[in-house]
Amino acid sequence: MERGSLVVPDGVQVVIKEPKTYHPFSIHYIALLAPFSVFGVLARLGLSALTTYAGQSIFSLAYSQAVGCLIMGFLLELKEPISRYYPPAYTALTTGFCGSLTTFSGWQLDIFKSWLNVDNVHRAPLRDAMDGVCKSVFTISLSLASLFYGMHLAKMVSVYFRAATPPGKSLRTAATILAILVYAATFPAYFLLPRDYRHQATAAMLFSFPGTLTRYVLAIQLNTLVPPFPLGTYAANTVGTALLGIFHVLQSTSNHALSGASCSLLQGLADGYCGCLTTVSTFAAEIAALKTNAHKYRYGLTTWATGQIVMVCLFGALLWAGNIGKSQTCVFDG
């Protein structure tokens, strides 16, 4: 491990350990992503349940997007001290927790449902369009505002974050083992907890880590190929939105009734895998980080438009052909 030195005002030379380097695909990174993916999806589902009620003023998904981006902004500003202490911890908090707390695919489906007036609210078609525009503009505006406010809060408290000694081998090993055990616990939780928990949370917990891991691999492999356009995140958001469209179609098919277990698994794939494969927090952070306005608008609008085109092709086409209904026909266990 390399060492550096710092001379403090009284002339004493202090030796500072440089942070240990880890391969992006080392067990330290991969294992720590797992529990934070579970925590992120649970926080999203919990916020959604808490903010869904009759007469709500703001659509429920806005809360998880705002909170996730706020935490992301806070962590971005504190990247140096957190990474100096333990780089996998920074990735687990940002890619794992914030990326799973926010969801791009759920946002795209929510917008498309507004265009279609899935809830069959008595209103003119122009109001359907306005509802979709509102969810589009409001979400991205709120996400960016939350991101910058999180950075602002971090600047206020950054003076209190002192350089800490990086964890030793035993502590790193313990953290890795604990992370694996936390995710492993999602398997017995799915089978042992009541069946009505499956579509509510346990199925999503099961599929959360695979979704986050797919997004992480795509980002590592593709994001550097075109610097002004983060291709990895774009691919993750596009693929996740396409999969969510497919799962929603399967849940809305009236010709072939699905079993309760199948419906619960589909909901788990939608909330867990697609929800964690796609992200608004990283999407907003990348928009903010791009150097020119042209790059920002190109990346943001292209990603949004691709998501809506995917929804039209996979969900809209079958709906307008009369093969599926607007609402889900799945009946869950419980």
Automatic annotation (TrEMBL):
This is CrcB-like protein-domain-containing protein. Fluoride channel required for the rapid expulsion of cytoplasmic fluoride. GO terms for molecular function: fluoride transmembrane transporter activity. It is found in: Cell membrane. The chain crosses the membrane at residues 27-47, 53-76, 133-154, 174-193, 301-321. Belongs to the fluoride channel Fluc/FEX (TC 1.A.43) family. It holds the Pfam family CRCB. It is a multi-pass membrane protein.
